[in-house]
Specification:
The protein contains ten helices and five strands; from the N terminus they run ααααααβαβαβαββα. It is mainly alpha-helical. It folds into two domains: 70 residues, DNA polymerase, domain 1 (Orthogonal Bundle), CATH 1.10.150; 127 residues, HAD superfamily/HAD-like (Rossmann fold, 3-Layer(aba) Sandwich), CATH 3.40.50. The strands form two sheets. The protein has a three-stranded parallel β-sheet with strand order 3-4-5, covered by helices on one side. It has a two-stranded parallel ribbon with strand order 1-2. α1 packs across α5 and α3 packs across α5. The longest helix is centred in the first third of the chain and has 18 residues. The chain is globular and about 55 Å long.
């Protein structure tokens, strides 16, 4: 959600799988595996390919992909999605912010630190914190639980910003409102969200606040 790195994750995943003699198409990834963290993604793909999990050592595959990913983004200058920095700065002054992601914690913190945004997030939930991937709501609920160490926030008072269909389902299962960004999927595909924007630049705080007004 911060930088456009989904194509990078896919490329590194394909690289690792190719080394193991497995072909993963872009279409198959976006249709079936986008919402999974690395562990669940490798497990599902290996299961589909009838490969032995023990022989391929999933943790080794995860580490190999992480190494490729970190090397790639170290060499390439990654550009934030337009409008991200502005909105993170603005929203962090008004509300407590948290991240609930299927990415590895080190990757999340490295990217936020590089973008000078790390201090704006009070809680970070990563793949290591939640064994279940979206649409399971565990990551959202765990993020809220940690935020509530200092305050009392109800799920119904939370807003989730997502760009995946599984993420939208997970947010709603957590009883949270969800705004979707059409980064990966079309606006039509994201129609189950409470509100859809094409990009961060189009964000409207007025429209978002309207989601929380009591129904007449």
């Amino acid at each position: 959600m911060i930088i456009n790195d989904e194509p990078i994750h896919l490329k590194m995943l394909q690289k690792v799988l190719k080394e193991e003699g497995i072909r993963l198409t872009t279409k198959d990834y976006y249709k079936n595996y986008l919402a999974f963290d690395d562990k669940n993604c490798f497990e599902k793909i290996l299961e589909k390919e009838n490969c032995s999990r023990a022989s391929l050592k999933i943790q080794e595959l995860i580490q190999r992909k992480a190494t490729y990913y970190e090397t790639f983004i170290e060499k390439k200058h990654r550009v934030l999605f337009p409008g991200v920095k502005k909105w993170v700065h603005r929203l962090s002054k008004l509300y407590p912010l948290a991240i609930a992601s299927a990415a590895l914690g080190n990757e999340i913190r490295w990217i936020l630190k590089r973008a000078n945004l790390l201090s704006h997030f009070q809680v970070i939930i990563s793949a290591e914190d939640t064994p279940k991937s979206k649409p399971n709501p565990e990551s959202y609920l765990k993020a809220l639980q940690r935020l509530n160490r200092r305050r009392k926030i109800l799920p119904q008072e939370c807003l989730v910003i997502e760009d995946s269909i599984a993420g939208i389902k997970g947010a709603h299962q957590a009883s949270m409102k969800c705004v979707a960004l059409a980064h990966t999927y079309t606006r039509t595909q994201l129609k189950e969200a409470d509100l859809v924007f094409t990009r961060f630049k189009d964000f409207s705080l007025r429209k978002i606040k309207a989601l929380f007004k009591p129904e007449k």
